[in-house]
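ok new one. same drill as before - C-alpha coordinates go in, u give me an amino acid for every spot. 233 of them this time. try not to just spam alanines like last time pls lmao
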Protein backbone atom coordinates (compact mmCIF):
# COMPACT_ATOMS: atom_id res chain seq x y z
CA UNK A 1 0.00 0.00 0.00
CA UNK A 2 3.01 2.31 0.28
CA UNK A 3 3.41 2.63 -3.47
CA UNK A 4 -0.09 4.07 -4.16
CA UNK A 5 0.39 6.45 -1.23
CA UNK A 6 3.74 7.58 -2.64
CA UNK A 7 2.22 8.11 -6.07
CA UNK A 8 -0.59 10.20 -4.58
CA UNK A 9 1.90 12.42 -2.75
CA UNK A 10 3.89 12.91 -5.94
CA UNK A 11 0.73 13.66 -7.93
CA UNK A 12 -0.44 16.13 -5.27
CA UNK A 13 2.85 18.02 -5.50
CA UNK A 14 2.64 18.15 -9.29
CA UNK A 15 -0.95 19.43 -9.14
CA UNK A 16 0.04 22.01 -6.53
CA UNK A 17 2.76 23.36 -8.81
CA UNK A 18 0.25 23.49 -11.66
CA UNK A 19 -2.29 25.32 -9.52
CA UNK A 20 0.23 27.97 -8.42
CA UNK A 21 2.30 28.33 -11.59
CA UNK A 22 0.20 30.93 -13.41
CA UNK A 23 0.69 33.92 -11.05
CA UNK A 24 4.44 33.25 -10.93
CA UNK A 25 4.69 33.03 -14.72
CA UNK A 26 2.51 36.13 -15.11
CA UNK A 27 4.82 38.10 -12.82
CA UNK A 28 7.81 36.84 -14.79
CA UNK A 29 6.20 37.86 -18.10
CA UNK A 30 5.35 41.31 -16.72
CA UNK A 31 8.86 41.96 -15.42
CA UNK A 32 10.47 40.60 -18.58
CA UNK A 33 8.29 42.91 -20.68
CA UNK A 34 8.98 45.90 -18.45
CA UNK A 35 12.74 45.37 -18.59
CA UNK A 36 12.79 44.75 -22.35
CA UNK A 37 13.66 41.04 -22.25
CA UNK A 38 10.35 40.37 -24.01
CA UNK A 39 8.54 42.59 -26.48
CA UNK A 40 5.00 43.72 -25.55
CA UNK A 41 3.71 41.59 -28.42
CA UNK A 42 5.15 38.48 -26.77
CA UNK A 43 5.04 39.28 -23.06
CA UNK A 44 1.63 40.96 -22.98
CA UNK A 45 -0.36 40.16 -26.12
CA UNK A 46 0.66 36.51 -26.46
CA UNK A 47 1.56 35.36 -22.96
CA UNK A 48 -0.47 37.46 -20.52
CA UNK A 49 -3.67 37.85 -22.51
CA UNK A 50 -3.79 34.45 -24.19
CA UNK A 51 -1.46 31.67 -23.07
CA UNK A 52 -1.44 32.47 -19.35
CA UNK A 53 -5.20 33.00 -19.31
CA UNK A 54 -5.57 29.46 -20.61
CA UNK A 55 -3.03 28.24 -18.07
CA UNK A 56 -5.11 29.86 -15.32
CA UNK A 57 -8.02 27.62 -16.31
CA UNK A 58 -5.71 24.61 -16.18
CA UNK A 59 -4.57 25.79 -12.73
CA UNK A 60 -8.15 25.66 -11.43
CA UNK A 61 -8.51 22.12 -12.77
CA UNK A 62 -5.28 21.22 -10.97
CA UNK A 63 -6.68 22.73 -7.78
CA UNK A 64 -9.82 20.64 -8.14
CA UNK A 65 -7.65 17.57 -8.63
CA UNK A 66 -5.89 18.42 -5.39
CA UNK A 67 -9.25 18.65 -3.65
CA UNK A 68 -10.12 15.14 -4.82
CA UNK A 69 -6.84 13.80 -3.44
CA UNK A 70 -7.42 15.65 -0.16
CA UNK A 71 -10.71 13.82 0.31
CA UNK A 72 -8.72 10.58 0.62
CA UNK A 73 -5.51 11.94 2.10
CA UNK A 74 -5.82 14.37 5.00
CA UNK A 75 -2.17 15.27 4.66
CA UNK A 76 -2.90 16.95 1.33
CA UNK A 77 -5.62 19.24 2.66
CA UNK A 78 -3.39 22.27 3.12
CA UNK A 79 -1.93 21.84 -0.34
CA UNK A 80 -5.45 21.54 -1.74
CA UNK A 81 -6.68 24.62 0.12
CA UNK A 82 -3.75 26.80 -0.94
CA UNK A 83 -3.85 25.50 -4.51
CA UNK A 84 -7.58 26.13 -4.87
CA UNK A 85 -7.42 29.63 -3.37
CA UNK A 86 -4.44 30.66 -5.51
CA UNK A 87 -5.80 29.19 -8.74
CA UNK A 88 -9.32 30.59 -8.29
CA UNK A 89 -7.98 34.03 -7.34
CA UNK A 90 -5.68 33.99 -10.36
CA UNK A 91 -8.46 33.04 -12.77
CA UNK A 92 -10.73 35.64 -11.18
CA UNK A 93 -8.02 38.26 -11.68
CA UNK A 94 -7.68 37.35 -15.35
CA UNK A 95 -11.45 37.51 -15.87
CA UNK A 96 -11.64 40.88 -14.11
CA UNK A 97 -8.72 42.30 -16.13
CA UNK A 98 -10.24 41.04 -19.38
CA UNK A 99 -13.52 42.74 -18.50
CA UNK A 100 -11.71 46.00 -17.74
CA UNK A 101 -9.94 45.89 -21.10
CA UNK A 102 -13.20 45.12 -22.91
CA UNK A 103 -14.85 48.19 -21.36
CA UNK A 104 -12.10 50.58 -22.46
CA UNK A 105 -13.65 53.69 -24.03
CA UNK A 106 -10.38 55.08 -25.34
CA UNK A 107 -6.76 55.50 -24.33
CA UNK A 108 -6.36 59.00 -25.79
CA UNK A 109 -8.52 61.39 -23.77
CA UNK A 110 -8.70 65.18 -24.13
CA UNK A 111 -10.77 67.87 -22.47
CA UNK A 112 -10.79 69.80 -25.76
CA UNK A 113 -11.69 67.99 -28.98
CA UNK A 114 -12.02 71.18 -31.02
CA UNK A 115 -8.36 72.06 -30.50
CA UNK A 116 -6.63 68.99 -29.11
CA UNK A 117 -3.48 69.78 -27.10
CA UNK A 118 -0.32 68.72 -28.91
CA UNK A 119 2.34 66.49 -27.39
CA UNK A 120 5.15 69.01 -27.77
CA UNK A 121 8.39 67.65 -26.34
CA UNK A 122 6.77 64.21 -25.98
CA UNK A 123 6.03 63.84 -29.70
CA UNK A 124 9.42 62.32 -30.57
CA UNK A 125 8.72 59.45 -28.15
CA UNK A 126 5.38 58.61 -29.76
CA UNK A 127 6.49 56.48 -32.69
CA UNK A 128 3.60 53.97 -32.85
CA UNK A 129 1.45 54.06 -35.98
CA UNK A 130 -2.31 53.72 -36.39
CA UNK A 131 -3.25 54.76 -32.86
CA UNK A 132 -6.97 55.09 -32.01
CA UNK A 133 -8.60 58.53 -32.20
CA UNK A 134 -8.97 60.98 -29.35
CA UNK A 135 -12.12 60.87 -27.21
CA UNK A 136 -13.59 63.54 -24.96
CA UNK A 137 -16.16 64.07 -22.24
CA UNK A 138 -18.82 62.01 -24.04
CA UNK A 139 -16.71 58.86 -23.61
CA UNK A 140 -14.95 59.94 -20.41
CA UNK A 141 -17.37 62.06 -18.33
CA UNK A 142 -14.67 63.21 -15.93
CA UNK A 143 -12.51 64.78 -18.65
CA UNK A 144 -13.51 68.39 -17.98
CA UNK A 145 -11.31 71.48 -18.39
CA UNK A 146 -10.55 73.85 -15.56
CA UNK A 147 -11.95 77.28 -16.36
CA UNK A 148 -8.94 79.09 -14.98
CA UNK A 149 -5.29 79.63 -15.83
CA UNK A 150 -3.57 77.08 -13.62
CA UNK A 151 -0.20 77.81 -12.10
CA UNK A 152 2.56 75.60 -13.59
CA UNK A 153 3.84 74.84 -10.10
CA UNK A 154 0.43 73.54 -9.05
CA UNK A 155 0.18 71.41 -12.19
CA UNK A 156 3.64 69.94 -11.62
CA UNK A 157 2.66 69.05 -8.06
CA UNK A 158 -0.53 67.28 -9.15
CA UNK A 159 1.34 65.34 -11.83
CA UNK A 160 4.16 64.25 -9.55
CA UNK A 161 1.66 63.23 -6.87
CA UNK A 162 0.23 60.74 -9.39
CA UNK A 163 3.56 59.31 -10.45
CA UNK A 164 3.95 61.37 -13.64
CA UNK A 165 7.55 62.24 -14.50
CA UNK A 166 7.56 65.86 -15.71
CA UNK A 167 9.59 66.43 -18.86
CA UNK A 168 8.99 70.14 -19.34
CA UNK A 169 7.05 72.84 -17.49
CA UNK A 170 6.27 76.41 -18.46
CA UNK A 171 3.61 79.08 -18.33
CA UNK A 172 1.87 77.67 -21.41
CA UNK A 173 1.90 74.00 -20.48
CA UNK A 174 3.36 71.05 -18.64
CA UNK A 175 4.43 67.78 -20.28
CA UNK A 176 5.11 64.46 -18.62
CA UNK A 177 4.68 60.71 -18.81
CA UNK A 178 3.79 57.88 -16.46
CA UNK A 179 5.05 54.32 -16.84
CA UNK A 180 2.86 51.48 -15.62
CA UNK A 181 4.25 49.26 -12.87
CA UNK A 182 3.64 45.79 -14.28
CA UNK A 183 4.31 45.74 -18.01
CA UNK A 184 5.84 49.20 -18.28
CA UNK A 185 3.29 50.70 -20.68
CA UNK A 186 3.54 54.49 -20.85
CA UNK A 187 0.86 57.18 -20.84
CA UNK A 188 1.81 60.70 -21.92
CA UNK A 189 0.23 63.68 -20.18
CA UNK A 190 -0.17 67.20 -21.56
CA UNK A 191 -1.57 70.08 -19.51
CA UNK A 192 -2.19 73.10 -21.75
CA UNK A 193 -2.43 76.39 -19.86
CA UNK A 194 -4.16 79.42 -21.33
CA UNK A 195 -5.81 82.51 -19.87
CA UNK A 196 -9.14 81.41 -18.42
CA UNK A 197 -8.76 77.71 -19.29
CA UNK A 198 -6.55 74.71 -18.57
CA UNK A 199 -6.93 71.60 -20.74
CA UNK A 200 -5.76 68.05 -20.18
CA UNK A 201 -4.75 65.29 -22.55
CA UNK A 202 -3.73 61.78 -21.51
CA UNK A 203 -2.79 59.21 -24.15
CA UNK A 204 -1.20 55.77 -24.20
CA UNK A 205 1.87 55.44 -26.40
CA UNK A 206 0.66 52.14 -27.84
CA UNK A 207 -2.64 51.19 -29.46
CA UNK A 208 -3.70 48.69 -26.79
CA UNK A 209 -6.66 49.14 -24.45
CA UNK A 210 -5.55 49.53 -20.85
CA UNK A 211 -8.84 49.41 -18.99
CA UNK A 212 -9.55 53.17 -19.20
CA UNK A 213 -6.28 54.13 -17.52
CA UNK A 214 -6.17 57.34 -19.59
CA UNK A 215 -9.69 58.29 -18.55
CA UNK A 216 -8.98 57.63 -14.87
CA UNK A 217 -5.83 59.75 -14.88
CA UNK A 218 -7.49 62.55 -16.86
CA UNK A 219 -10.42 62.52 -14.42
CA UNK A 220 -8.12 62.67 -11.40
CA UNK A 221 -6.19 65.60 -12.84
CA UNK A 222 -9.35 67.39 -13.92
CA UNK A 223 -10.85 67.02 -10.45
CA UNK A 224 -7.67 68.27 -8.76
CA UNK A 225 -7.30 71.29 -11.04
CA UNK A 226 -10.96 72.23 -10.74
CA UNK A 227 -10.75 71.97 -6.95
CA UNK A 228 -7.81 74.38 -7.13
CA UNK A 229 -9.90 76.59 -9.39
CA UNK A 230 -12.70 76.81 -6.80
CA UNK A 231 -10.20 77.46 -4.02
CA UNK A 232 -8.71 80.41 -5.90
CA UNK A 233 -12.11 82.00 -6.57
Amino acid sequence: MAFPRRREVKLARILFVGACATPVLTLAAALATRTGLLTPEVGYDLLARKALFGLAVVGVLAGLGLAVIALRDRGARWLALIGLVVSLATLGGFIWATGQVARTVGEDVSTDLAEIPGFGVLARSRTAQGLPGTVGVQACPGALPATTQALPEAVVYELQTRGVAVRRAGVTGVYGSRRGFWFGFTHDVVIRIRPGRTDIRVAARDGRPHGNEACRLATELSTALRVGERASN
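The two ends are 83 Å apart (CA to CA). and btw The longest strand covers residues 186-194.
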